[in-house]
Amino acid sequence: METGMHAKIGILGGTFNPVHIGHLMVAQSAFEQLELAKVLFLPCLAPPHKKTTELADNRHRMSMLESAVEGDFRFEISDIEIKRGGISYTIDTISQLKKLNPGTDFIFIIGADTLTELHLWKNIHELFKMCRFVTYVRPGFDLESVRKKELHLDPPWPERLLGDIRAGELVDVSSSGIRHRIAEGLSIRYLVPASVEMYIAEHGLYRK
To answer: What is the pLDDT of residue 5?
Structure first.
C-alpha cells in the first residue's frame, strides 16, 4: 500500500466470512463522508473476541474480498494480519501500518455493536492515540441507549467516540445470517456481490 503524506486511510477490519453488501456500503459511506484517499479492508487471521469454528480458510476469504472490490479504485485489501500470524490484535496492526506509511492518518471504521466492546481490546487507550475511531450505526440501533459509563473507558474517550458516530446507507445484513441461509439451502442473491455468490457456490462454502 502506497500513500501520500498526510493521506487519510479508512480501515475496515473483520473476518469477512463472507464479505457482504453491508461491508461494502459502510466502506462507501466512510469513503465519501470522511473524505478518505481509500478504504483498506483488513481480514483478520484469528479474532480475539470471536469464535472461529465457522471461519472459512484464509485463501477463500481473501479471494471473496478480491472479487468483491475488483475494479473499485476506492478500496484495497491488506493481508497484513494473515501474514503476521497469531491472534489479530489491532494495536499491532496499526503500529505496523504506521511504520510502513509515515505521515498517514488512519481512521478505524467500526459498527455500533463494536463500540461497547472496545474496552476489551488490547491496549485500547494507547490505540486511541494512534488512530481515530468512527462508528457507523446499523438500522434500528438506539444511540440514546448508549451511556458514557457503559463504554468502560477513561475520559475523554467516551465523549469523543459518542461524538463521532455516523449514519450511512446501511442494511441489516450479517455474515452469520448469510452462512445460516447457505446451510439451509436458501438464496443469498442480493446479500453479497454476484461474484462472491458464485465463488461460494463453486467452492461449496458454509454448507452443512
So the answer is: 56
Per-residue pLDDT at 132 exceeds 70: yes
Residue 3 domain flag: no
Domain housing 20: 8-203
What string of DSSP letters covers 143-159?
GGG--GGGG---TTHHH
Residue 2 lies in a domain: no
| Domain of residue 138, CATH code | 3.40.50.620
pTM beyond 0.85: the answer is yes
| Integer Cα distance of 38 and 8 in angstroms | 7
Taking the C-alpha atoms of residue 69 and residue 76, their distance in angstroms, rounded to an integer, is 7
Answer whether residue 119 is part of any domain. yes
Of 78, 161, 87, 166, the closest CA to residue 118 belongs to 161
Rounded distance, CA 24 to CA 130, Å?
A: 25
Domain-located, residue 1: no
Looking at the chain, the whole-number percentage of residues with pLDDT higher than 70 is 94
Specify the DSSP class assigned to residue 33.
H
Q: 10 Å Cβ neighbour count for 75?
A: 21
Give the DSSP H/E element, type plus range, for residue 136: strand 132-136
Mean pLDDT of 58-85: 96
With 0-12 / 13-18 / 19 or more C-beta atoms within 10 angstroms meaning exposed / middle / buried, residue 169 is exposed
The cell numbers describing 190, all together, are 442480493
Tell me how many domains the chain contains.
1
Question: Please, what is the end-to-end C-alpha distance for the chain in angstroms?
Answer: 38
In angstroms, the CA 135 to CA 165 distance is: 5
